Amino acid sequence: MKKSLIALLMGAGMITAASAQTSSIINTDFKAIEGYSDGTIVGKPTASPKWEHVENTAPNAFEITDSAGDGYADQTLTIDDFGTNNLGQYVYLDATSAGNEVDDEWSGIMDFKLELNDAFAGAPVTLTRTKIFNIGLSTVNSNNLRDVHLEDAFVTVKTDNDGSLQFQFNGSDNMVVLPVEDTGWDPEDGLGGGADFVTDDLRLSWTMRKTANEGVYGAWASIENLGTGSNYTSAATLHHSRIDVYTNTAPYFLMGRVENADFNGGTNVHSVIVDKLSFEKVSNVAPMPVPPAVSVLSGDQQATLSWGFLYDVDSYKVEVSDFSTGPWAEATNGLSNTVAEYTDTDLVNNQVYYYRVTAFYGAAEALSEVVIAKPLSVVTGPIFATSFKASEGYVGGDLANQKNWVALSGTGANAFEVDAAGDGYADTAPNGATWNTTNGNTVYWSSAMSNGVNATWSGTVDFQLSAVAFPGAYKTNAWYEYDIVEGITNSIATNEVVRNIGTAQNQNFIALDLALTLSDADPLDVNDTNQVNLCVQSRSAFGLRTAFNSAGNNRALNTAMEPEKLGWDPAWSNPTNLLADGPDFESDRIRLTYTIQKTAGQDFYVAFATLSNLVTGAVSSNDGTNPSKVADWWEYEKPGAYAAPLLRFAMGKSKLADGTQNPGDVAVSSELDVKIDSVSLTHSNGAAPLLFPPSWSEATPVASSSTANELTWQSGMSATEGYVVLRSLYDGGPYATNAVVSNATSYVDTDVNDVWTYYYVLRSYQGAFHSANSSQESGTIIPVSSILKLGGTGSTYANLETQNKPKLDNTDSGTTLSNITVRSGIFIENGNPATLQSMGTLDNTLRGYIQTHETDYNRSRVFNRIDPQLVKYELSGGTATNSAILTYVLASEMDDPDVVAAGEVDLTAAAYEYALSMNNFSLMDNATTGKYARALVRQDSTWYVSEAYMEDASVLSIADIGNAATNWLTLDITPVDTFWTALGQPVVNPTLDHVDAIGWYIENGKVVQVLTLSVSAQNASAISEYKWWGAEHLLLDDDMASDPDGDGALNLLEFGLNGDPNNPADTGVDPELDVVNVGGTNYMQYVHLQRIGDNLGVDYSIKDTYNLVYIPITNETEIAAQYMGDYDESYETVTNLIPAEGSVKFLRLELEEL
C-alpha cells in the first residue's frame, strides 16, 4: 500500500528521468515483526538503520507499543514524557539519508493522529498557535530542528488557534492547511458538537527537492483525512534557502516533538501518534519547469514583459506574433535564469502584438499563456478637455471607442452613455442594466503618460449626481411627517422612496472612480497597488467628499459638502424643503478640481482636491471629523504603479455605487449615477514637487521656558527632506528663517529674549523647493522663575518636633516629614504666572516648628492625607486646643537663579519681581477666631510675616515681596506660654536681600489645610531699545558685534546711526564735521544721530587726538555745547560744539555696548 502511495506521489509531482535512482531511507509500521519491541524507540529496530537519541534534547521521544503482535496493522508510536528542557524530544536514524545532490527529491508519507495528553475532563480548551512536530533533514545529529537553523530542512506540524492544522516548510510558511472541520477533533468545541481531543487518522505526504539554485530547497505537501477522504494539496511549491544543509553531502533524518508543544503552563502537551512512516530519496529527478506567469506593460514603441523569478530554470525564450495563434518569431532566446523580464523595442504604436515565454530546464520546458501588448503613444501637456459635444467629434451612444476612450476589458460594458446634442454629457444612468456590481464599469484614455518623479496629473470634472429611487413611500423627516403627509398627499405621487446614502455605518459609496492605472484590464480597486485612485464618495444624508486610495472613512480630503451645498435633497430631509413638492434627486453642477503627483518618496503619490457648486458658488470644507483621517492632502504608497514607466487615466462607475461591498450583497442605499458635463486632464513631467506644510503637534506645539521656545510638529510628506522654521516678532509676520531642520520634527529656539513673544510658521522643503507656510503658533519667553510648592502624597505623618513639652525649633535641622516633598519648576502662561504644575522633585527637607500651650500635650502634628499635594495639620487627639504653626523651606533649596550667597536670595534684585501666592487654605475649626495664614520669610536670622493674610478658603497674593513698600511684621519666636499674635505689631519694611527661608505662618489654628504655596521670580527688567530694533529687523544674529549683511558696519553701528542690518547699501547716516563761528569764537561742529530712549543698551561718546600716527583716539573730547534736534520718531540729531583752539585736530564718534 505504501509503495503504491509513493509511486502516486512521484507521478503526480514530477517527471522522472530514466536514470533516476530510488533509495529507501525508512519504511515501517513500527511492528515487532520489523524488529520493534515495546518501550523506547531508541536502539530499534534490531537491524540498521536504527533510531538513536538526539543529544541535547529530552529523552524518551517515542514509545513503541505492539503488545498485540503483528496482527495489528496500525500499531502506534506514542510520544510521552515531554521533558523539561527547551529543545524538545528528537531521535535520528543512524544511517544517513543516502546523499544530497542537485535534483534529489525526498518523499515522505506519515500516517498519524494528534491528541492532547490531558482531556481536561471533557471541558473545552483554548488552543494557541503551537508547533507540535518536526520531521526532516539536518547536518547534525546533536540538536533539534528549528526554523533558524540553516543546517535543517524539514516539515512542521502546527495547530492554529481554532484547532485547524498547518503543515509548514521549515516551521514558517504554510504548504497546506487542514481546516478544523476536517481534522476529526475539536478541542475548543468551536463546531458545537462537544469537545474532542483526538484527531481522525491523517496522512501527510510531502516532497522536498534540492534545486539547481544555490542553497535553495523546494517543498510541497498534501494532507488527507483517512476516515473521510478529504484531501488538501499545496497550491504552489515553497522555496527556502538552507545553505548549510545544501552543501552537506550526507544529512541525517530526524523527527521529534517541538519544545513548544506544551501549553497551559506546561501541564498539557500535544502528542503525535505515528502509525506508519516511509521516507525515500529519488536521485536525478529532472523537474518540470513552471510555466512563467507573464505580465506586459506597453510603452512608447515598446513592450516590457515580466514574470516572477522561477526556480529550476536554465534559460528563457521569448516569442512574438501578429496573431494569437502564431506563427511565432523568436524575439530572444537563451535569457539567463536570473533575468525575469524582456523589453521588445522598435514597435509600432497602437498595433497589437502577441507574446509567449518558454522556460527551459535541460530537455524539459514550460510555455506561458499568450499575452497581448499594444504600444502606446506617450503624451504630456494638455491631454484632453472635453464636453462630449458633437462639435468635438462625439456621437450619441457608448463612450468607449470614441476619441481615445477605450473600455477597460475587465469591467462591465457601456460605462458612460454620450449625449452629444447641445452642450453634451456622458452619463452612467442610462446603462444601469449593464452596471457590473463586481468590477464596475470603466473606460480609460488610451494614450499613456510618463510616470517619473514629480510627474503631475491635474484637471477638473464637472458633473451632476442623481439617485435612483426605490419603490414605496417617500422617506420623510419624522418630526414633520404628519404635516408633510397632510400637505402633499394630493400633489405628488407616493410610490417611491430613496434610502440614506453613507450613513455612519456605511460610508463606502463611491459615486465616481478616477484612477491612474498601468493595466488596460484590471478593474478599479483602491487596494490595487498598480493603481492610484481618487474617489468621489458619498457621505451621510447624501453629502459628498473625495478620498485618496480609500473607499471608506479614511484618507478623506477636506472636501466635504453637505446636501444643501450640493443643491439636492434625495432623502427629503432638508428642513427648508420639507413642505416643497418632494425630494430632489439631482444635484447642481459640481466641479471637482484635483491634482495627483508622484513624489520623490519611494512608492508614494500625493493628492489634493476641492469640490465647488457651479450654480451657487458653495465650496467644500473640512467636515470636522477625525484629523487623523481627514486632511488637506494625503499621500499613499502604491508600489506597483510607482515602478511603472507609464500610466493611463481611467474613470468609471464604481462597483460600490450602492454601498455593497461584495457581489450579491443587499444594497444598503440608492444607486448613485453621475452625469459628466466636462472633464479635463493635464500632465506634466518633472514639475515642481507638491509640498505641503507640516501640522503642528496637537498637544503643545510651542513650549516656552525661560531660555527657549521648543517647537514640535508632525511628520510631513515622505518626500520631505526637512523643514524650515520661520519666526517673526509680529502676529502674522513678516517671517524670517530661524532654522533649517533635517529629519526631525522638533526644534529648540534658544536665540530669544526674556518676555518677548515669537511667532512661528513652518515649511516643508525638498531640494530648492518649499511648501507654503503652516498655520502660526506663538511662544512667549518667560522670566527665569522658581516656584516653591509644598505638597505630598500618602497617608503617613511625622511630628515636626518630638518633645512632649512645647518647643520652638529654629536650627534648620527639623525632622524630615515622611512622604512630603518640595517641588520646584517653571510654569508661566502668556508671560504671567498661571496654574502651578510640578516640573520635578527636589531632595529637600520641609522644616518648621509648632507652638502650643505649655500645659497641652496634644499638639498639632503634620498629617499628609491621601489627597495628593495636600499638607494637613491637625490635633493629635485629646482636648481641642489650637496651635501656632510655622513651616518653611530653605531658600537654597528653591533652586533660585538669584542666590547671592550660599542659601540666600536677593528679593530686591531689580531684574525680578518675586510674586507670592498661597491658596486653598482651610481652617476647619469654625468655632475658633483669629485664624489667619501669612507669608513668612527669614532675613539675617530674623523672621518676618506679611501684614497681608488670608482667611478660610481665600487666597493670599503679594505681587512683589521684595518691594520696599511691602509691609511685614517681625515674628518673635521666643518660647512663650501664649501665642505670638499680629495684633498691635508695628509694620516694618526690611530690605530682603539675604533671605534664606520662605514659607508660611498660621496663627491660632487647630485643623489646618494648605494646598499650595508658590514663589515665582518674574522678569521685571525693561527690554533694551537695541533688542527691539533687532526684532524689528528680524535679526537671527542680534549680537552687537555681528555683521549679518557683510557691509563692514556692525549691528552696534547700524543701530546707533539708523542703518539697515539686512541691506549692505545702508550703513546709516554718517556724522558731519564743520567749522562754525559762534559769538566770535570758532568751533568745530560735529553732528551725529542718536537713538531716542532711556534703555538703549548703547553709549555714545566723541573721542579726539591731535596726531593719528602716534597718539590713538582715546581721549573723550571737550564739548563746549550740545544741542538736540528732531530727526524722526526713533532718532534725534546731536550737535556738538568743540573749541577749535587747542590741540584737537581729529574727532571720532564711538558707540559702546553697555
Kindly state the percentage of residues in helix.
under 10%
Work out the radius of gyration: 45 Å
* Portion in strands: 35-45%
Distance between the termini: 106 Å
- What would you call the shape? extended
Give the integer mean of the pLDDT values: 76
Give the topology, please.
Layout (H helix, E strand, L loop, with lengths): L1 H12 L7 E8 L10 E2 L10 E3 L9 E3 L10 E3 L10 E5 L11 E12 L13 E9 L13 E8 L5 E5 L3 E6 L23 E9 L5 E10 L5 E3 L4 E4 L1 H4 L5 E6 L4 E2 L4 E16 L10 E6 L2 E6 L7 E7 L7 E8 L4 E4 L8 E9 L2 E4 L3 E3 L7 E6 L10 E2 L6 E3 L9 E3 L5 E3 L13 E5 L3 E2 L5 E12 L2 E2 L9 H8 L7 E2 L12 E8 L13 E9 L3 E6 L7 E2 L5 H4 L23 E9 L5 E10 L16 E2 L2 E4 L1 H5 L2 E8 L18 E13 L17 E3 L4 E4 L9 E7 L7 E7 L3 E4 L7 E10 L2 E2 L6 E4 L6 E6 L4 E2 L21 E6 L2 E2 L2 E2 L7 E2 L4 E5 L8 E4 L7 E5 L7 E8 L8 E3 L2 E2 L6 E12 L8 E8 L2 E9 L5 E3 L9 E4 L15 E2 L6 E11 L2 E12 L5 H8 ...
Keywords: Signal
Organism: Pontiella desulfatans
InterPro entries: FN3_dom, FN3_sf, Ig-like_fold
